[in-house]
């Protein structure tokens, strides 16, 4: 099957809003809304095509674009590979140069219709925050709570409860307390590896272990399902299960696993290339590493100690 390669831009303002454009008359799906972009011409890289298309369509000069996710979609008239970039820097004010209509949208609230069907999963991915905090309570759940409160006040909106050494009863009480605080800030909570606990407390999702990826025959029936991955095979399995996002680790050496092999930036980028689900980088990172992680294909960074400073 021959696929048409398309470069697609998620232009994102500082306030988080992103740009959609309506398809002009005379094109397939005229009037439908989509992300700006266009076909990759022979001899072009995807990034070069992106820069050219945004200049031709919107009259802007791209200064900062990072690879994000890939969508493979079959329309009646074409089979396409959509390579999405996060575009956060440009010169000029976007304006319609090809008869389209433009509209800035907020993640989680799409106010235009109809939208090209290939783009619906992209909206869900855009609603995922850039930072994913993983709890570090250890033997002091009460002492962790002020750190959690500070992080939530500072804007943390996605949390994983991961306390492998905590007794079951203590863990459930701790997870309930984390969830209550998170809900007060419209933050979402996932629980590591325990679907039953997620269902009992009403959390938003589960973080599947690599072992669970190999054991499950279908995706758990939860709003959010994430996967912990370390290699291409595990990422393949996460995609096949329909996970919403993945953690890929360890990127760099970490104090908790001294001497353990780390992926490094180049291997991490190679593993992210062409993936259909957003990937968080995990291992040896801090919030200051977010831009570098995105330049290597990450959606964001997952932080243990760094989330609670």
Give the end-to-end Cα distance, rounded to a whole number of Å: 50 Å
CATH homology superfamily name of the largest domain: Aldolase class I
Q: Structural class of the helix and strand makeup? A: alpha/beta
Task: Estimate what percentage of residues fall within beta strands.
Answer: 25-35%
Biggest sheet architecture: 8 strands, parallel, barrel
Helix proportion: 25-40%
**Number of separate helices:** 9
The domain tally reads 2
Describe, in plain words, how this protein is organized in 3D:
- Mg(2+) binds at residues 37, 57.
- Keywords: DNA damage, DNA repair, DNA replication, Hydrolase, Magnesium, Metal-binding, Mutator protein.
- 8-oxo-dGTP binds at residues 23, 34-37, 119.
- It holds the Pfam family TMP-TENI.
- It catalyses: 8-oxo-GTP + H2O = 8-oxo-GMP + diphosphate + H(+); 8-oxo-dGTP + H2O = 8-oxo-dGMP + diphosphate + H(+).
- By secondary structure, the chain is an alpha/beta fold.
- It has 2 domains: 4-118, Alpha-Beta Complex (Nucleoside Triphosphate Pyrophosphohydrolase); 131-308, TIM Barrel.
- It is 28% helix and 27% strand.
- It is built from 9 helices and 15 strands.
- An 8-stranded parallel beta barrel has the order 8-9-10-11-12-13-14-15. Strands 4-1-6-5 form a 4-stranded mixed sheet, with helices on one face. A 3-stranded antiparallel sheet has the order 3-2-7, with no helix packed on it.
- α3 (141-153) packs parallel to α4.
- The longest helix has 16 residues, at 168-183.
- It is globular and about 65 Å long.
- The model has no long low-confidence stretch (mean pLDDT 95).
């Amino acid at each position: 099957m021959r696929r048409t390669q398309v470069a697609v831009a998620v232009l994102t303002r500082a306030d988080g809003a992103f740009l959609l454009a309506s398809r002009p008359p005379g094109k397939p799906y005229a009037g439908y809304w989509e992300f700006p972009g266009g076909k990759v011409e022979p001899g072009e890289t995807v990034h070069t095509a992106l820069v050219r298309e945004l200049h031709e369509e919107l009259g802007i000069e791209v200064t900062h674009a990072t690879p994000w996710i890939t969508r493979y979609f079959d329309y009646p008239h074409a089979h396409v590979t959509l390579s999405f970039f996060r575009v956060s820097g440009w010169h000029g004010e976007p304006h319609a140069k090809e008869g389209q209509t433009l509209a800035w949208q907020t993640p989680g609230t799409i106010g235009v219709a109809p939208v090209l069907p290939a783009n619906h999963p992209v909206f869900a991915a855009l609603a995922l925050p850039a930072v994913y905090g993983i709890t570090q309570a250890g033997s002091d759940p009460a002492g962790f709570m002020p750190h959690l409160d500070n992080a939530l006040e500072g804007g943390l909106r996605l949390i994983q409860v991961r306390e492998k050494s905590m007794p079951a009863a203590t863990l459930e009480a701790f997870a309930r307390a984390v969830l209550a605080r998170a809900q007060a800030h419209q933050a979402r909570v996932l629980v590591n590896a325990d679907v039953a606990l997620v269902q009992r407390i009403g959390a938003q999702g589960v973080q599947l272990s690599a072992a669970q990826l190999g054991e499950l025959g279908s995706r758990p029936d939860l709003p959010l399902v994430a996967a912990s991955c370390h290699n291409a095979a595990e990422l393949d399995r996460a995609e096949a299960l329909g996970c919403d996002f993945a953690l890929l680790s360890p990127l760099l050496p970490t104090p908790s696993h001294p001497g353990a092999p780390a992926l490094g930036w180049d291997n991490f980028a190679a593993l992210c290339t062409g993936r259909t689900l957003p990937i968080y980088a995990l291992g040896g990172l801090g919030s200051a590493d977010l831009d570098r992680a995105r330049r290597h294909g990450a959606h964001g960074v997952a932080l243990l100690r760094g989330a609670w400073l």
